[in-house]
């Protein structure tokens, strides 16, 4: 007969033994890592980080531990870098040591082993070089990317005229235009806004991004093995990614059937031509898996970030009509009303250029950047960061640094203007990160934001049913991301 006391003792013994085992397996004291909260067995520093608001949690830890500190994702350490000096020192001065991408346990292995975003080494170098060159010299003399953006901006203007000045939610329209630019570059054609295939495609991207910025994904990082078998919305991620892959694979088949290597129409044609050129090379990185995932990488990098930033930009101008009026005066003076704005106009429009920069700074669309990983044991600021340690670049602490921007929590285009009203650069303006892994689509995103914004304000005046002073411009925090609050506006023809 087993007595209750014996049962309690046995359970206590088992729990103690389990804790000792977990403590033994937790890598404390393994390296001279930066300071941080003491990790617990199995859960690491989980109780110091609110998965609903990682940004707020990390800001509090920065106040306590300084610009470089360590948190634990389960048993794995992650070094967090805050402020311009620490991030520049890591990503520029130690570029090679911090140039690799960290593993993404939430994603299927195929999407981390192929493509241009999450891969490392020679695969990443070749794919990035090819992608940058193809986007820069697009189409071998065919229509430029700028022309495609101008075309899409024109379609948007015609679509918004149908609202007849009535209030509407701009999120769907802005999602359509940013996605259509990528479609034009990658697939060679845009889609009508009512196209069911296009709507389904955008809906899948939106569902995936909602999941990636949800607390469920943070739990996948903390407990990767457990979350692979645990029920929850995160299990749908693989289903959505498979559907996207099937869509892209179908487009690749269509391109292969009509390919003319001497006249590539888009990114897929250029990649297929490169595949044919390297057909006899067994070590070639130009294979269909890399094409499929790179195309998906371009969509995720170039759609939601631009549409979200545009959505925030329009909200900010809605709140500050005096800034909108200054931009429109500059548009009228430089561009006029009879032609489309072009990138050549930007140098003559310092106030508009500064406003676009300030929208990017204030929107802060990627607060934590994309995680990196140390490629070797690295000495950094007196600490030893072991090979394989995750690196988080906390970009919010740069873009909202009061030492770098006079009024960091206020929307102020003056941050990028000198005393004479000329455009002024800031070294701390790095919303697209820095170093060897700087965002592949930075130039495209900047072009889109400038051309879309100037085209809209050339044709419309923004209106709101709310009193301007009552418009809320504070961001909604979604785990490790930021979004503008939902709103409605009116587009009144000028």
From TrEMBL:
This is Cytochrome P450 2G1-like isoform X1. Its cofactor is heme. Belongs to the cytochrome P450 family. The keyword Iron-sulfur does not apply. SUPFAM superfamilies: Cytochrome P450 (SSF48264). It is found in: Endoplasmic reticulum membrane; Microsome membrane. The chain crosses the membrane at residues 6-24.
């Amino acid at each position: 007969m087993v007595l209750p006391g014996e049962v309690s003792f046995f359970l206590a013994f088992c729990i103690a033994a389990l804790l000792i085992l977990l403590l033994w397996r937790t890598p404390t004291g393994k390296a001279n890592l930066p300071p941080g909260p003491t990790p617990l067995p199995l859960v690491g520093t989980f109780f110091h980080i609110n998965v609903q608001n990682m940004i707020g949690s990390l800001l509090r830890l920065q106040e306590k531990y300084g610009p470089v500190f360590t948190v634990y994702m389960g048993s794995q350490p992650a070094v967090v870098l805050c402020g311009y000096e620490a991030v520049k020192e890591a990503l520029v001065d130690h570029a090679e040591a911090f140039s690799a991408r960290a593993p993404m346990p939430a994603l299927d292995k195929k999407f981390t082993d192929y493509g241009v975003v999450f891969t490392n080494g020679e695969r990443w170098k070749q794919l990035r070089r090819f992608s940058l060159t193809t986007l820069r010299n697009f189409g071998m003399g065919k229509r430029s990317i700028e022309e495609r953006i101008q075309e899409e901006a024109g379609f948007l203007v015609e679509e918004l005229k149908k609202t007849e000045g009535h209030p509407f939610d701009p999120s769907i329209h802005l999602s359509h235009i940013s996605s259509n630019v990528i479609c034009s570059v990658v697939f060679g054609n845009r889609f009508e806004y009512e196209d069911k295939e296009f709507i389904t495609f955008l809906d899948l991207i939106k569902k995936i991004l909602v999941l990636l910025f949800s607390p469920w994904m943070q739990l996948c990082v903390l407990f990767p093995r457990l979350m692979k078998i645990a029920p929850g919305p995160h299990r749908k991620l693989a289903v959505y990614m498979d559907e996207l892959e099937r869509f892209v694979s179908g487009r690749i088949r269509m391109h292969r059937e009509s390919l003319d290597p001497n006249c590539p129409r888009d990114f897929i044609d250029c990649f297929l031509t490169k595949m044919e050129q390297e057909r006899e090379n067994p070590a070639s990185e130009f294979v269909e898996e890399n094409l499929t995932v790179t195309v998906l990488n371009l969509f995720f990098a170039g759609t939601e970030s631009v549409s979200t930033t545009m959505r925030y930009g329009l909200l900010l101008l809605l709140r500050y009509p005096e800034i909108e009026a200054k931009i429109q005066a500059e548009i009228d003076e430089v561009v006029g009303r009879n032609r489309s704005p072009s990138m050549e106009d930007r140098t003559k429009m310092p106030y508009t250029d500064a406003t676009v920069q300030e929208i990017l700074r204030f929107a802060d669309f990627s607060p934590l950047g994309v995680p990196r990983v140390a490629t070797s044991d690295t000495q950094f600021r007196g600490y030893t960061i072991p090979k394989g340690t995750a690196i988080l670049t906390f970009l919010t602490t740069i873009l909202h640094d009061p030492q770098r921007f006079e009024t960091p929590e206020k929307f102020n285009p003056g941050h990028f203007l000198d005393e004479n009203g000329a455009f002024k650069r800031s070294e701390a303006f790095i919303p697209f990160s820095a170093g060897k892994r700087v965002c592949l689509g930075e130039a495209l995103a900047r072009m889109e934001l400038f051309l879309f914004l100037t085209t809209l304000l050339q044709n419309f005046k923004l209106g709101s049913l709310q009193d301007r002073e009552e418009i809320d411009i504070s961001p909604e925090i979604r785990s490790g991301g930021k979004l503008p609050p939902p709103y409605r506006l009116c587009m009144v023809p000028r």
